[in-house]
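Chain particulars:
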Amino acid sequence: MRNSCCLDVGGTFTDCFLSFKGKSARGKADTTTYDIGVGFLAAVEEAAKALDASLDEVVRDLDEVRYSTTIPVNALIQRTGPKLGVITTRGFEDTLVVGRGRSWGDGMSTAEIRNLARVERPAPLVSRDMIVGVQERIDCQGNILLSLDKGDVLEKLKYLMDRGVRGIAVCLLWSYVNPIHEQMIYDVIREEYPEVYLGNMPVIMSSQINPVRGEYLRFNSTLLDTYMHLESADQLYTVGARLRERGYRKSIFIAHNTGGLGKFTRTAAINIYNSGPVAGLHGAMYLGEQLGLKNLITVDMGGTSVDFGLVVDGGIRHYFAYPVIERFRVGLPMIEMTSIGAGGGSIAWIHPESGRLRVGPKSAGAMPGPACYDMGGTEPTVTDADVVLGYIDPDFFLGGRKFLNKDQAIEVIEEKIAKPLKMSTVEAAYAIKQVVDANTSDLIFTETALKGYDPREFVLLAYGGAGASHGC
């Protein structure tokens, strides 16, 4: 039996499943967003202790490490990624700005689209003044009609650098047929601005990320990959460095949102978007095989979100016809997983206009986390409501490894939910639970019955940190 370690880094917790010398164990630790490696090694060490082994011994003798994560997506959701520049063919600088006829509605629910008075276009990842066009043209058969002007490239490159870009997406027309001009621009950037001056500044070519027809989808895919690249690269480098320090010398694999695995060094940032939920869906399919269950509704309720997927006739057959990442349509294949902000750390709040109770999508994260964690959290969350209602034992959280402050949970729910809504603390906590359960059940109905499946023919498989507490 191979010695292997599977790790999933979520927004709240980092989980480890370790197979070592014929035995297996699990480990769990807080996700340390300031340094992913700290929480990562803490989870592995906990699993190693359960097998009476040291961390160094386990890491040194591992045959493989498999990894999944949702952390890089936070840069996209919170818009904390680097300042980017885009180089495209002259005359097509507005491709990303104009989009397609209905691109304003990408990633929105039907109800949101119908409410036209409140519809807003997604906040752009790059401002219009950071998109430049260069003199070049290749036709649809790959023939060069107008050669690339190196002097023009240098001029536009200096313009972007003077404005402080930390990443460049190169998206030329018809480059998926003939990428020679994109490659020339890449070479010019690396020649004029080597890493010794600028450090790790990603330069991503559309012919490298999404070499398919349709410039809007290809441009979006390239821009998203560039935007998430630094966050992903920093995390993967940290994980790799921590393992190497402990003596690990084998390959590190990461789950892709297409359903497979790839080596760290050969994985584009956009391919690990949603990698954690997709890995969970594959685990659910395997468990279904062991139990003889062919149809599964999977509900992965973690600390930040609820991720929904389907196993039909024993397999994963659903891929997005038109994949959307956040609010941007892309041209890459992705296994269909639907997410809503309804996890254990999702914050309960009162809508200022309607006065109604809402839960999510904003999350308290891992640090400070829910108020009951007693780490500085001041907002009422789903976990706080579960503690108040008795679904979670504050003296035996995580098998007794973490103690929760029930009084703190009562205080924040009473102050921010119960008093404004003129109800008791227990009623307010129960209302939070009802809202999050209703949101999840609505999601299940939408993704099964409205797509032609009878949910009565499926088994509900609820997992994740909060899945079991709310599955029933």
Remarks:
- The CA atoms of residues 74 and 280 lie 19 Å apart.
